[in-house]
Write a structure and sequence with these properties.
Helix content: 40-55%
Strand content: 5-15%
Structural class: alpha+beta
Largest sheet: 2 strands, antiparallel
Distance between the termini: 5 Å
Strand order of the largest sheet: 1-2
Number of helices: 7
Radius of gyration: 17 Å
């Protein structure tokens, strides 16, 4: 089965943002460019820049520091252990647990789903008002970038995912290509957890 990476750190960061927002009176979040840089673990040294929802009570610099924290970052060993489970009965993609691999790419998608924005109207006090759908292409790349699944299986899984409206081809949250900067937290969107129920 396909198992999602841990979600503990992103939940911790969002809880911190809630506390920060609660301390502010009439906090009005903004949508500003921010750069998240991973300082440990699988995605160590890589960074990602995008328009993100920033609490009114927090500076962009503080936001970047919070989300760039190395606390709890997934190690290569932990990533490989998850991949072992995900690829039971299939060959592992050797690039998965590298900084340009599918694991780090999924972290970008997770951040985009929860925190990306076009304007401040997209934001509440701790992130997006409504999570974006994951791009279907990102879903497919996550599967093929994890294990060397049979193409027919991947096609079948994508049919199920699209049929359940678990991804979108328009106005969606994507990851980055191997040539683009990547990042971040040991977390992946809840959608991947739902997808796990369908992969055998």
């Amino acid at each position: 089965p396909l198992h999602p990476p841990r979600t503990d750190q992103i939940m911790f960061f969002r809880a911190v943002l809630l506390l920060v927002a609660a301390a502010a009176v009439n906090a009005a979040p903004t949508c500003e460019s921010a750069t998240i840089t991973q300082t440990a673990g699988v995605c160590n040294g890589l960074s990602y820049t995008a328009m993100m929802c920033i609490p009114d009570s927090m500076s962009v610099a503080d936001f970047q520091t919070l989300y760039s924290s190395s606390d709890g970052a997934t190690t290569v060993a932990e990533c490989e252990a998850m991949q072992d489970l995900e690829c039971t009965g299939s060959t592992k993609n050797t690039a998965y647990c590298t900084s340009s691999g599918s694991y780090c790419n999924a972290q970008i998608a997770a951040l985009n789903v929860a925190m990306s924005c076009a304007t401040a109207d997209d934001c509440d006090v701790i992130g997006r008002k409504t999570y974006k759908d994951v791009c279907c292409a990102t879903m497919r790349n996550q599967m093929t970038g994890t294990c060397e699944y049979d193409a027919a299986l991947v096609d079948g899984m994508m049919d199920i995912i699209k049929g359940e409206n678990l991804c979108s081809d328009t106005d969606c949250a994507s990851g980055a290509s191997a040539l683009q900067v990547s990042m971040m937290l040991p977390a992946v969107l809840a959608t991947f957890a739902m997808v796990a129920n369908y992969i055998f």
